[in-house]
């Protein structure tokens, strides 16, 4: 084997190692950008809407999507160049992080929908309660008027 072939093989091996390190680094950054479990679980607020808004903020994935994209990009490059001897662990980690990002984003969307629904529901309930109170007051007034009329008729 010629010297240039050994140098090329050595360079390719170094490049393959660097690509793997780039994928691992991007995956680590993506994991770090995801919300912490305690941040999602422990939220403080004065009311339901405050809790929902705090929760929606807690579901921010930050730069996780961009970091995952970089990991996928470098992984694809390494795979196409056949640079990895065994990259199953990288593929699994990319899928796991991608699924988690998707789940967090879905949860954020659901909380956002709920956060916009709760104030509407509250208004509807307040209107219903006010109408019920008015109806009850009207009924009481009618009963009082009937009682007054009966009392006058008896007198």
Molecular structure report:
This protein has helices spanning 3-33, 37-41, 48-58, 64-80, 88-154. The protein has 155 residues and is mostly helical. It has one domain. The longest helix is centred in the C-terminal third of the chain and has 67 residues, at 88-154. The protein is rod-shaped and about 120 Å long. The model has no long low-confidence stretch (mean pLDDT 88).
Characteristic key phrases:
155 residues; mainly alpha; DUF5790; rod-shaped
Question: What would a concise description of this structure say?
Answer:
This protein has 155 residues and is mostly helical. The protein is 85% helix and 0% strand. It has one domain.
């Amino acid at each position: 084997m010629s010297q240039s072939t050994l140098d090329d093989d050595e360079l390719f091996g170094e490049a393959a190692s660097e690509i793997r390190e780039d994928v691992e680094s991007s995956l680590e950054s993506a994991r770090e950008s995801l919300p912490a479990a305690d941040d999602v679980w422990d939220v403080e607020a004065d009311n339901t809407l405050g809790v929902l808004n705090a929760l929606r903020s807690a579901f921010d994935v930050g730069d996780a999507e961009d970091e995952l994209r970089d990991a996928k990009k470098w992984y694809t490059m390494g795979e196409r160049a056949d640079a990895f001897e065994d990259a199953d662990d990288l593929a699994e980690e990319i899928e796991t992080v991608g699924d988690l990002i998707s789940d967090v984003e879905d949860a954020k969307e659901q909380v956002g929908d709920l956060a916009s629904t709760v104030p509407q529901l509250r208004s509807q309930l307040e209107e219903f309660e006010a109408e019920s109170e008015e109806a009850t007051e009207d009924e009481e007034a009618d009963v009082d008027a009937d009682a007054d009329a009966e009392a006058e008729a008896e007198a």
